Amino acid sequence: MMSNTPGYPHKIFKKIVELLFPVYCVRCATRGAIVCEKCLEHLHTSPSPVGGVLVALAYKDRFVRQALWRLKYKGEKHVAETLASVLFHHVRDRLFEIAEESPLSRDEWLIVGAPSPHERITKRGYNHAELLATSIAEKLGEGHIFESGILEVHKPIVQQAKTTSRAERERNVRGAFRVSEHISVRGKNIVVIDDITTTGATIHECEHTLRRAGAHRILLAAVAH
Ligand SMILES: [Zn+2]
Fold this sequence. Notes:
With 225 residues, this protein is α/β, with parallel strands linked by helices. It is built from eight helices and seven strands, in the order ααβααβααββαββαβ. Strand 6 (189-196), helix 8 and strand 7 (218-224) form a beta-alpha-beta unit. The protein starts with 7 loop residues before the first helix and ends with a strand. It binds zinc ion. Zinc ion (ZN) binds next to helix 2.
Protein backbone atom coordinates (compact mmCIF):
# COMPACT_ATOMS: atom_id res chain seq x y z
CA MET A 1 0.00 0.00 0.00
CA MET A 2 1.18 3.48 -0.85
CA SER A 3 0.65 4.86 2.63
CA ASN A 4 3.09 2.31 4.03
CA THR A 5 5.92 3.58 1.86
CA PRO A 6 8.59 5.05 4.17
CA GLY A 7 8.61 8.81 4.02
CA TYR A 8 5.24 8.94 2.22
CA PRO A 9 3.49 11.46 4.54
CA HIS A 10 6.67 13.55 4.46
CA LYS A 11 6.56 13.59 0.65
CA ILE A 12 2.87 14.56 0.61
CA PHE A 13 3.61 17.39 3.04
CA LYS A 14 6.47 18.58 0.85
CA LYS A 15 4.17 18.54 -2.20
CA ILE A 16 1.60 20.68 -0.37
CA VAL A 17 4.25 23.19 0.73
CA GLU A 18 5.51 23.27 -2.86
CA LEU A 19 2.02 24.08 -4.15
CA LEU A 20 1.41 26.80 -1.59
CA PHE A 21 4.86 28.36 -1.77
CA PRO A 22 6.32 27.67 -5.19
CA VAL A 23 10.09 27.98 -5.48
CA TYR A 24 11.83 29.21 -8.60
CA CYS A 25 15.41 28.58 -9.69
CA VAL A 26 17.56 31.67 -8.95
CA ARG A 27 19.41 31.17 -12.24
CA CYS A 28 16.74 30.29 -14.86
CA ALA A 29 13.44 30.82 -12.98
CA THR A 30 12.23 27.25 -13.62
CA ARG A 31 9.79 26.18 -10.94
CA GLY A 32 10.86 23.47 -8.50
CA ALA A 33 14.03 24.23 -6.55
CA ILE A 34 16.22 27.15 -5.50
CA VAL A 35 18.71 25.97 -8.14
CA CYS A 36 17.32 23.50 -10.70
CA GLU A 37 19.27 20.36 -11.60
CA LYS A 38 20.44 21.79 -14.90
CA CYS A 39 21.71 24.99 -13.32
CA LEU A 40 23.44 23.15 -10.46
CA GLU A 41 25.95 21.97 -13.07
CA HIS A 42 26.72 25.55 -14.03
CA LEU A 43 27.49 26.89 -10.55
CA HIS A 44 31.12 27.85 -9.96
CA THR A 45 32.84 25.12 -8.01
CA SER A 46 35.57 25.68 -5.44
CA PRO A 47 38.95 23.98 -5.28
CA SER A 48 38.70 21.33 -2.57
CA PRO A 49 39.90 20.81 0.08
CA VAL A 50 40.74 24.34 1.20
CA GLY A 51 42.86 24.44 4.34
CA GLY A 52 41.74 20.93 5.29
CA VAL A 53 38.03 21.63 4.63
CA LEU A 54 36.09 19.88 1.85
CA VAL A 55 34.29 22.52 -0.19
CA ALA A 56 31.77 22.24 -3.03
CA LEU A 57 30.94 25.68 -4.41
CA ALA A 58 32.55 29.07 -4.93
CA TYR A 59 31.12 31.90 -2.85
CA LYS A 60 32.02 34.34 -5.64
CA ASP A 61 29.16 32.84 -7.69
CA ARG A 62 26.21 35.18 -7.13
CA PHE A 63 23.68 32.35 -7.42
CA VAL A 64 25.48 30.47 -4.66
CA ARG A 65 25.41 33.62 -2.52
CA GLN A 66 21.70 34.12 -3.20
CA ALA A 67 20.86 30.54 -2.23
CA LEU A 68 22.91 30.74 0.99
CA TRP A 69 21.41 34.10 1.88
CA ARG A 70 17.88 32.73 1.54
CA LEU A 71 18.75 29.72 3.68
CA LYS A 72 20.37 31.84 6.42
CA TYR A 73 18.27 34.95 6.51
CA LYS A 74 14.95 34.30 4.76
CA GLY A 75 13.93 31.15 6.59
CA GLU A 76 13.85 29.04 3.42
CA LYS A 77 14.69 25.62 4.78
CA HIS A 78 14.20 23.88 1.41
CA VAL A 79 17.47 25.49 0.22
CA ALA A 80 19.41 23.18 2.55
CA GLU A 81 18.43 20.08 0.60
CA THR A 82 19.60 21.49 -2.74
CA LEU A 83 22.94 22.71 -1.36
CA ALA A 84 23.44 19.50 0.61
CA SER A 85 22.95 17.49 -2.60
CA VAL A 86 26.09 19.15 -4.00
CA LEU A 87 28.27 18.89 -0.89
CA PHE A 88 27.14 15.31 -0.30
CA HIS A 89 29.25 13.98 -3.20
CA HIS A 90 32.44 15.42 -1.71
CA VAL A 91 31.73 13.98 1.74
CA ARG A 92 30.76 10.56 0.35
CA ASP A 93 33.89 10.32 -1.82
CA ARG A 94 36.18 11.22 1.10
CA LEU A 95 34.44 8.72 3.38
CA PHE A 96 34.97 6.03 0.71
CA GLU A 97 38.67 6.86 0.63
CA ILE A 98 38.89 6.66 4.41
CA ALA A 99 37.06 3.31 4.39
CA GLU A 100 39.51 1.99 1.78
CA GLU A 101 42.47 3.07 3.90
CA SER A 102 41.15 0.96 6.79
CA PRO A 103 38.99 -1.70 5.11
CA LEU A 104 38.45 -3.75 8.26
CA SER A 105 36.73 -0.99 10.14
CA ARG A 106 33.02 -0.46 9.61
CA ASP A 107 32.83 2.73 11.51
CA GLU A 108 29.84 4.83 12.23
CA TRP A 109 30.00 8.53 11.56
CA LEU A 110 28.12 11.25 13.34
CA ILE A 111 27.12 14.10 11.04
CA VAL A 112 26.86 17.40 12.92
CA GLY A 113 26.34 21.05 12.05
CA ALA A 114 28.67 23.85 13.12
CA PRO A 115 27.03 25.73 16.00
CA SER A 116 25.24 29.01 15.58
CA PRO A 117 24.94 31.60 18.38
CA HIS A 118 21.70 30.96 20.30
CA GLU A 119 20.03 34.26 19.58
CA ARG A 120 20.40 33.72 15.85
CA ILE A 121 18.86 30.23 16.05
CA THR A 122 15.95 31.61 18.05
CA LYS A 123 15.30 34.38 15.56
CA ARG A 124 15.18 31.99 12.62
CA GLY A 125 13.96 28.96 14.51
CA TYR A 126 16.65 26.64 13.18
CA ASN A 127 20.37 26.22 12.75
CA HIS A 128 21.01 26.21 8.99
CA ALA A 129 24.23 24.16 9.34
CA GLU A 130 22.23 21.45 11.12
CA LEU A 131 19.68 21.43 8.29
CA LEU A 132 22.52 20.80 5.84
CA ALA A 133 23.93 18.10 8.14
CA THR A 134 20.54 16.33 8.42
CA SER A 135 20.16 16.24 4.67
CA ILE A 136 23.70 14.95 4.12
CA ALA A 137 23.25 12.23 6.77
CA GLU A 138 20.04 11.09 5.03
CA LYS A 139 21.79 10.90 1.68
CA LEU A 140 24.78 9.00 3.12
CA GLY A 141 22.41 6.45 4.63
CA GLU A 142 23.14 3.63 7.05
CA GLY A 143 25.95 4.20 9.53
CA HIS A 144 25.76 7.97 9.19
CA ILE A 145 23.79 9.51 11.99
CA PHE A 146 22.74 13.12 12.29
CA GLU A 147 23.19 14.33 15.84
CA SER A 148 21.75 17.67 16.90
CA GLY A 149 23.28 20.06 19.41
CA ILE A 150 26.66 18.34 19.91
CA LEU A 151 28.51 21.64 19.78
CA GLU A 152 27.27 24.59 21.81
CA VAL A 153 28.27 28.22 21.84
CA HIS A 154 29.16 29.19 25.38
CA LYS A 155 30.62 32.65 25.06
CA PRO A 156 29.30 35.65 23.19
CA ILE A 157 30.58 35.78 19.63
CA VAL A 158 29.77 38.23 16.88
CA GLN A 159 28.79 36.96 13.44
CA GLN A 160 31.93 35.99 11.56
CA ALA A 161 30.62 37.95 8.57
CA LYS A 162 30.97 41.12 10.66
CA THR A 163 34.65 40.58 11.49
CA THR A 164 37.29 42.14 9.29
CA SER A 165 40.52 40.14 9.49
CA ARG A 166 41.67 36.56 9.80
CA ALA A 167 43.16 37.30 13.24
CA GLU A 168 39.90 38.84 14.39
CA ARG A 169 37.88 35.86 13.14
CA GLU A 170 40.16 33.45 15.00
CA ARG A 171 40.02 35.50 18.21
CA ASN A 172 36.24 35.77 17.92
CA VAL A 173 35.64 32.01 18.02
CA ARG A 174 38.63 30.87 20.10
CA GLY A 175 37.34 28.80 23.02
CA ALA A 176 33.76 29.75 22.08
CA PHE A 177 32.39 26.22 21.67
CA ARG A 178 31.96 23.25 23.94
CA VAL A 179 30.62 19.73 23.54
CA SER A 180 27.14 19.30 25.04
CA GLU A 181 27.33 17.52 28.39
CA HIS A 182 24.54 15.19 27.26
CA ILE A 183 26.68 13.57 24.59
CA SER A 184 30.04 11.82 24.65
CA VAL A 185 32.13 12.12 21.51
CA ARG A 186 35.05 10.09 22.87
CA GLY A 187 36.26 7.66 20.21
CA LYS A 188 33.59 8.77 17.71
CA ASN A 189 34.07 9.70 14.05
CA ILE A 190 32.49 13.01 13.20
CA VAL A 191 31.75 15.02 10.06
CA VAL A 192 31.28 18.73 10.78
CA ILE A 193 29.15 20.59 8.22
CA ASP A 194 28.99 24.35 7.77
CA ASP A 195 27.55 26.63 5.11
CA ILE A 196 30.46 28.93 4.34
CA THR A 197 34.12 28.73 5.25
CA THR A 198 36.23 31.82 4.71
CA THR A 199 39.39 31.56 6.78
CA GLY A 200 38.25 28.24 8.29
CA ALA A 201 38.34 29.76 11.79
CA THR A 202 34.88 28.57 12.86
CA ILE A 203 35.06 25.04 11.49
CA HIS A 204 38.63 24.50 12.79
CA GLU A 205 37.53 25.70 16.22
CA CYS A 206 34.81 22.99 16.02
CA GLU A 207 37.55 20.50 15.18
CA HIS A 208 39.72 21.57 18.17
CA THR A 209 36.75 21.39 20.52
CA LEU A 210 35.82 17.87 19.37
CA ARG A 211 39.46 16.76 19.44
CA ARG A 212 39.86 17.97 23.04
CA ALA A 213 36.72 16.02 23.95
CA GLY A 214 38.31 12.82 22.59
CA ALA A 215 36.76 12.48 19.12
CA HIS A 216 38.60 9.98 16.91
CA ARG A 217 38.41 11.01 13.24
CA ILE A 218 37.07 14.38 12.20
CA LEU A 219 36.11 15.46 8.69
CA LEU A 220 35.30 19.10 7.91
CA ALA A 221 33.04 20.16 5.05
CA ALA A 222 31.39 23.40 3.93
CA VAL A 223 29.08 24.24 1.06
CA ALA A 224 31.04 27.25 -0.17
CA HIS A 225 34.37 29.01 0.07
ZN1 LIG B 1 17.73 26.68 -13.36
